[in-house]
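During the no-cost extension, the postdoctoral fellow (Dr. R.K.) reprocessed legacy sequence entries with the updated structure-token encoder. One reprocessed record is reproduced below for audit purposes.
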Amino acid sequence: MTSLTMDDECMRRAVELAARAYGETSPNPMVGAVLTQNGRIVGEGFHRAAGEPHAEPLALAAARARAVQGRGRLTLYVNLEPCCHTGRTPPCVDAILAAPVERVVAAMLDPNPHVAGRGVARLRQQRVRVEVGCGERQAAELNHVFVARQRRGRPFVALKVALSADGCIAARDGARVKITGDVARRHAHRLRAGYDAILVGVETLARDRPLLDRRLYDGPGRAPRRVVLDPHLRSRAEWLWRHGARPLLFCAEESQRKARALEAEAEIVTLPYDGTRFDLHALARELERLQLWSVLVEGGARTHAAFLDAGVWDRMLLYRNRSYALQGLEWHAADAWRRERQNAKRVEVTTLGGDTLEVFAHPESVWLPGER
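Re-encoded structure tokens follow.
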């Protein structure tokens, strides 16, 4: 086994620091930074939330607080290319040049096509040695939501389903049953904490009355906003959630006249509807307008199939009980998924107690190793 180099160790630490802000930085990526001097860590930092200081200046400030001395011997490790533009915070490149730092090791370039490479180029213009690619795969996976958003120019969409060993999602009469075990359910609740919104169709809402919260996970992250696709506004006030942010209901334009009965309970937005399905590209634009940058689609099967058929998805998460044959209702999005899976990239297979999680990515949403 090849031993890890100093660069590998420091980049792994930068990724670990970045992950501490899981679910907290939207719409920004998660970024961690490690500053070393003569092979010794002298400063660390990570971006905690949009609008708060970035990882690089925090690591530099930590070093200053320790009265680190010396010029030309500092190396900065960061899991994403330092920014060179002014947003809610100043450019990180300026802070790096003022340190000064002799060497910067970045795991990957910024995937934003309007930014990518500019931070690196500016550093190199000022004679800072910059290396890109150490820990790239781990860094890209950590920020896969941010990567896909930049690549596809819309909010990130993940589809999630729990399947029995024989591919079923509910009992034969449609009743909701627990398919996966406790480990998988806790994992799914942590997953929810990383998303801005959770979406279901009105049939799922009516049948299952899901809570759509993250009650089994008390770590960092968000309380996602609940979203329902309800073309004919069948939802009833008693079906909706009284705690947390107001739920968001999408309906067909011709159903707007029914909205008054639910306006006190939910925000209602109209979308183009062809009598069978919503225009999901229009849905993505509305989610962006509402600053819901990532959405987890939890069902039901017709909703999953609609997203798959429209190509409006970035990840598929298949939780599967490997031994429980339910002999119930099959997942009717299976045919649509088989078509999409032909070109999908499998990025993860994880054992969760007695269950398995398979994660697939849309080919247009993936950062390719060595991409520049």
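The first strand starts at residue 32 and ends at 37. Residues 6-142 form a domain with the Cytidine Deaminase; domain 2 fold (CATH 3.40.140.10). The remaining legacy entries will be reprocessed before the final report is submitted.
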